[in-house]
Amino acid sequence: MAILNILRYPDARLHKVAKPVTEFGDRIHKLVADMAETMYDAPGVGLAASQVDVHEQLVIIDTSDTKDQLRVFINPAIVWASAEKQVYDEGCLSVPGIYDGVERPAQVKVSAFDADGQPFELEADGLLAVCIQHEMEHLLGKVFVDYLSPLKRNRIKAKMLKEGRGIEREAALKAAGRRF
Ligand code: K1U
Ligand code: ZN
Asked: CA-to-CA distance for 72 and 52, rounded, in angstroms?
């Protein structure tokens, strides 16, 4: 297993549209295992393949307290969404440290395939419903900050770019320290 690099907003690759998975097998099992290790390490409750620069329709979610209930959604589709809405303070591993309210349907029914290619349907509410919708939007190339006002979005973009430059500088200094 391996910890994968999570793309940080505003990386343009986060806006790529993911393609359906067409073959199930060892490659998908390894991707799921690596993404799970990455998500638990971060830590987070969900991760879309797009966030690790794999532009295929694969999402993992674990909203359990015990962190032992991994759900895998491959080629997911929302087949029903409630008229009732809920606002949830969402976060995103690609936009670390930023949380803001997003309104979405309170309940959804999703159809998908599991890691072995078996089809299933699931009805979800609460955090699981929020997470499914948030992760599926990553597959469409959308990040939750796209829902915020242009003013908030631009502030977040500037903060992320500034922090990103700091991370790059630290990595360069660390690498230089190893050389000398
Ligand atoms: O980056 C992601 O898409 C994952 C994201 C999922 C999510 C969380 C909350 C609302 C909508 C979508 C996260 O996991 S952000 C981190 C987080 O919420 C969390 C971290 C540690 C413990 C519990 C939650
Ligand atoms: Zn996210």
From this structure: 15
What is the Å distance from ligand 2's center to 57 Cα? 14
Residues in contact with 165: Cβ distance below 8 Å, sequence separation at least 6, in sequence order: none
Ligand 1 binding residues, C-beta < 6 A = 43-47, 51, 88, 90-94, 130-131, 134-135
Q: Strand, helix or coil at 69? A: coil
Indicate whether this model's pTM tops 0.85.
yes
Within the chain, residue ranges assigned H as helices are 26-41, 126-139, 150-179
User: Any idea which residues carry the catalytic annotation?
Assistant: 135
- Distance (angstroms) between ligand 2 centre and the Cα of 147 equals 13
Question: Ligand 2 centroid to 55 CA: how many Å?
Answer: 14
Closest atom, ligand 1, to C-alpha of 91: 15
d(CA 163, CA 167) in angstroms, rounded, equals: 6
What DSSP element (H or E) covers 58? Answer: strand 58-61
The pLDDT averaged over each successive group of 10 residues in the chain (180 residues) is: 96 98 98 98 98 98 97 98 97 97 97 98 98 98 93 95 86 76
Half-sphere exposure (CA, 13 Å, Cβ side) for 161?
A: 8
